[in-house]
Amino acid sequence: MALKKPYLDIPGTTIFDADQSRKGYWLNQFCMSLMKAENRERFKANERAYLDEWPMTEEQKQAVLARDLNWCIRLGGNIYFLAKIGATDGKSFQQMAGSMTGMTEQEYRDMMIRGGRSPDGNRYLGEDGDAQPHRQPQGSAGRAQQKGSL
User: Is position 8 within any domain?
Assistant: First the structure.
């Protein structure tokens, strides 16, 4: 029996839950291996050969090689583990986060200094967000019923 996961409706967001954890187990284990200097050296010497030592999916390996962190996250990667890839490449967390948002490091830094992104339009259905108005009930009775169902 599948669990109801209303948080899966948050636009542009992948929640790292138990299912994502299972999906990304070997990807995240690979990332954790980069905590050791000798593993970082082996990875940098031949990235593909090192990745092939891990029972990751081919798509996960391609996402790592592309350094596409959003893709890695969709495939079960946890950002705190994926940060090890960035550190291996000599990148700061800000540089990595900027790359994930399509911003430069400076643009990302400036946005965070201003308090981060606005939550407007980024809420899930039933939380009075406007992210997916085509799926929200019409009229005040529908909204009241929707609120009560969570």
Answer: no
